[in-house]
Amino acid sequence: MPVTEKSILSRLYIVAACLVVFAGAVLFKLVSIQVIDGEKYMALAETRTTKMFTIAPNRGNLYSDDGSLLATSVSKYNIHFDAVTVSEKDFQENVKPLSDALAKLFNKESSYYQQILRKARQNQNRYALIARNLDYSEYMAVKSFPLFNKGPFKGGIVIDQNTKREHPLGKIAERSVGYERVDENGYRTRVGMEGAFSDYLSGIEGKRSKVKIAKNQWKPIGYDNIVEPKDGYDVYSTIDINIQDIAHHALLKQLEKYKADHGTVIVMETKTGEVKAISNLGRTSEGKYYERLNYAIGESHEPGSTFKLVNLVAALEDKVIDTSTVVDTEKGRWKIYNHYVRDSKNGGYGEISVAEAFEVSSNTAFAKIIHNNYKEDPEKYVNRLMSMDIHKELGLPVKGEGKPVLRYPGDKGWSGLSLAQMAYGYEVAMTPLQTLAFYNAIANDGELIKPRLIKEVKEWNKTVKKFDKEVLNPSICSMETAKKVQQLLKDVVEKKHGTGHGLYSPNFSMAGKTGTCQKNYVSKDPDKLKYISSFAGYFPADDPKYSCIVVIHEPDKSVGYYGADVSGPVFKSIAQKIYATSPLIDEVDVKEVLETRLEDAYQGYYANIQKEYKEVPNVRGMSGMDAISILENLGLEVEVKGNGKVKNQSISKGTDLKKVKKIVLELS
């Protein structure tokens, strides 16, 4: 078909019309974007190029009772360089002086930094890393360097601040100090005091705007934050770092000696409930020990013979026995139904008083006492234990407190053997801290106090909240019963037949109870049978200042497993060193003080420990460990030759401490 001029014009008109319609559509869309949806697209562009970031505040510091740092937040700074914002003139004039200053501060060559800066300039890098993890003084120095002192826009300096949590004491009390962690989903894990008091320590987050630059990186806009972060409050704990150090090393030494699986030590101030030390050490596959889990608070287990104190108090309160009541130990074996209760001593103890049964820790005697006196009314027995709050948690702010187990007649697991088993610490469960709280109550004449880890929360020098003594039960037993069992706890250590007599020292007094409990006893395989060794008590025996419990799980049976042998020495070491390592008063011979009975000298000693000790003491005759502790506590460098007790000291008694830096001890 021939193409005519008319057909060509028609096609041109159609094309022109389409172009007009397309142009109209484009124009309409532009107007729509600008006017109708303008705010929407501007907001979208804003979110893709600028973004609001949260600024984590500095967590408050966690202190010991004397103001020593247990945990603190340390600010760290990363310095980057924006090579785009700097003018060519400023860059060329300052690149060499800036590189020289950086090289001097960080002990590198000036050429190293010149290469970084020039390469960033060439590649138009807006976020070139200059230095990372600087402390505050280094950060302030870098800010003052040539070019960088012109600020973020003219000088190109970009600052990223972050905080790190540090523990100045290292691994000591690490689990009790704890931590707070946040995963990628925002889930928080809170452990120990850091977790329990996070609401005080955390502070309030700030806000800062950042702009998106190359390679999906975000650069802060300017120096100032949109919302300034508010730092957390400082928390002052009850932990005494001197006692904590003593407890940690005493426990570690014994765990290593007995190749035990794990163990815990708690030292508590008797009158206030303040926890002065809490150490939890677990064994790795390589045989090393570290703060693995908070066994003291979280691990509920059968207490064994330390629970005999609870049963003794219950029976005395119900007046079903007295300390003079005679019990036949049945030659060390007593059959109840098809089960035998056995004493650790072959042949038993014959007919003995209740007092002596407690002192020698006779299982048969206590099984007979509880079973025979409560078998017709077992509810009466359990109700008596409940009246002493044995079944309750302590209600600690630290998460993960283990639940005590105390069955009631009719509950699942209760049987005809239950009374006899409970009599010597089986079929019940308590955490070490719950057991210690009971022993501490006996030391306090029956007043049960809630253990306390925190003294106060402060903002600078202003107290925000104070944590005072909290009484859980004003009287778990009568004063008469408390005084009777206090004497028996003292006799466990002081009397020759007592299970704790191996710990006796004429230099200071202790009161307590040994405990040896079997684990996996239902297994018929003797290799699977394990032990829990414990010692709970307080010191001095009269007018106690501290209560303490030591629990060691699964010691090597070939080395030893009885509570008196495994846990008792840790208790004694702690009691001795708490006394011996504190500063002594002027013109007092160390040996003479140690040879003075603790219950006679304790109050005068503690009234004078704050006085400055000005002269070198006489440490001859003391054990090397005790002498080292005392002398190092006085600020002296100590060199030791040999093992055993101190035979000679290079600096004589009475020498002015200001003139002495080092002392050499010769041990025999």
Automatic annotation (TrEMBL):
Keywords assigned by UniProt, alphabetized: Carboxypeptidase, Hydrolase, Membrane, Protease, Transmembrane, Transmembrane helix
Originating organism: Maribacter flavus
Protein name: Penicillin-binding protein
Domain of life: Bacteria
UniProt GO BP: cell wall organization
Location within or outside the cell: Membrane
CDD domains with a match to the protein in the record: PASTA_Pbp2x-like_2 (cd06575)
PASTA domain boundaries: 610-668
SUPFAM superfamilies: beta-lactamase/transpeptidase-like, Penicillin binding protein dimerisation domain, Penicillin-binding protein 2x (pbp-2x), c-terminal domain
One annotated Gene Ontology cellular component of this protein: plasma membrane
